[in-house]
Amino acid sequence: MLFDTVWLDARLATLRDDLPGLGNVDGGAVAARDGRIVFAGREADLPSGWDARERVSLDGRLVTPGLVDCHTHLVYAGSRAREFEMRLAGATYEEISRAGGGIAATVKATRAASVDELVDAALPRLDRLIAEGVTTVEVKSGYGLEDDAEARMLEAARSLATRRPVTVLTTYLGAHAMPPGASDKGAYVDAVCALIPQLKRAGLVDAVDAFCEGIAFSPAQVARVFAAAKEAGLPVKLHADQLSNLHGARLAAEHGALSADHLEYTDEDGAAAMARAGTVAVLLPGAYYVLRETRKPPVAAFRQHGTRMAISTDCNPGTSPLTSLLLTMNMAATLFGFTVDEAVAGATREAARALGLASEAGTLEAGKRCDLAIWDVDAAAELVYRIGFNPLYKRVYRGN
Predict the structure, then answer these.
(1) CA-CA distance, 308 to 303, in Å (whole number)?
(2) Which of 132, 210, 253, 283 has its CA 20 to 30 A from that of 264?
């Protein structure tokens, strides 16, 4: 058997579901052909008579799947740093809004930006993720809140994958907030639903998201958005139970959502419903930290019911200006009580599952994309334990 590349003398964290823990393999090897993994296991078990165009010795380094950032708002214009400064000085949300801050400020800047300007603004954020071993990222719209601006955001997100070696999935989040100055939620939801098939036909969207919350949209309004997504053949996701319990987790499960995200106020019924539906719980410690929240997601209930848990940066300009998935892993451990195994799996296997990519990414298994992160560490715990430390030795994307 001839491989394009084989990486030898490695310690693998395969993340395979059929192996305990992180699926560790000592004395391991990974072989790739045509951008896909064709072997991942003990070097001694490589098929007899194998050869490779390139052999790479890793000198015992740790290899994990490429990291997956499964919930970001990476494309936007403008800055909310002044707003952050105002909050530190004691300004209230209302005072910041009257001064032109809050989401309205990002909407105004994003609407005024061209596709190229949005791409240029997003690339430095994406580069920070790539530098930490991220090979797959989801990017949501939601700061345009009108048809043309939402489409430009999604076009910019699509363009990122042509500018960098990374897989980008796009999510339409028109039901993120009401547009500035608008008051008729029913009419706005109508407009969101009408745009979904247009975005699908234009090839701009992979999934549809909504924000189910008292300050955003009701469960009934979200259900309308989800029905439109289903009609267009698109999977759904949900910002749920972040500030109150509107039973968004259960709603997401009832609609077969890929994931429900945030989940600070999710109850046990919601956790059980998600487990039954296979809906992944995506936890976002960056937003929890920035907002100084005190109510934690029900991690114990998710464990008890077998709900899959992923983590993500939630990179956005207002509540999680975070571009480090490694720091997110540490936050998940220190703030939410994740184990090392849960944190690493949450940024690889479970994050891929939350994007509907479980058959393509997130583990080291034959047939999957050869997306690797190679680390200069002695153990996976180092990836979660260290703060402000990036031990990435090499990132491999599609075998290169």
Answers:
(1) 8
(2) 132
Residue 93 above 70 pLDDT?
no
Helices 103-111, 147-163: axis angle to 10 degrees equals: 80
93 Cβ neighbours under 8 A, 6+ residues apart: 102
Q: Answer whether 68's CB lies under 8 Å from 129's CB.
A: no
pLDDT band at 176 (very low <50, low <70, confident <90, very high): very high
Contacts of 120 (CB under 8 A, 6+ apart): none
Q: How confident is the model at residue 72 (pLDDT cuts 50, 70, 90)?
A: very high
Both ends of the chain: CA-CA distance in Å? 19
Residue spans of beta strands (DSSP E) within the chain = 2-13, 24-33, 36-42, 51-57, 62-65, 67-69, 134-140, 167-175, 207-212, 237-240, 259-262, 280-283, 309-311, 372-375, 392-396
Residues 217-249: tens digit of each pLDDT: 999 999 999 999 999 999 999 999 999 999 999
- Tokens, residue 118: 């949005």
User: Cα separations (Å) of 17 from 1, 329, 346?
Assistant: 27, 20, 13
Helix and strand numbers (H, E) in the chain are 15, 15
pLDDT tens figures, 264-283: 999 999 999 999 999 999 99
Structure tokens at 58: 């890793």
Lookup: tokens for 218: 């009701």
Asked whether the beta carbons of 340 and 384 are under 8 A apart, the reply is: yes
Residue type, 245: N
**Cβ proximity of 356 and 256 under 8 Å:** no
DSSP, collapsed to helix, strand or coil, labels residue 88 as helix
Burial of 390 (0-12, 13-18, 19+ CB in 10 A): middle
CB 139, CB 74: distance < 8 Å: yes
Q: How far apart are CA 400 and CA 388, in angstroms?
A: 27
Instruction: Decide if 219 contacts 212 (C-beta within 8 A).
Output: yes
User: Length of the chain, please?
Assistant: 400
Tell me if residue 122 falls in helix, strand or coil: helix
45 contacts: CB under 8 Å, gap ≥ 6:
none
Q: Is the pLDDT of residue 55 over 90?
A: yes
Handedness of CA 380, 359, 55, 133 (dihedral sign): negative
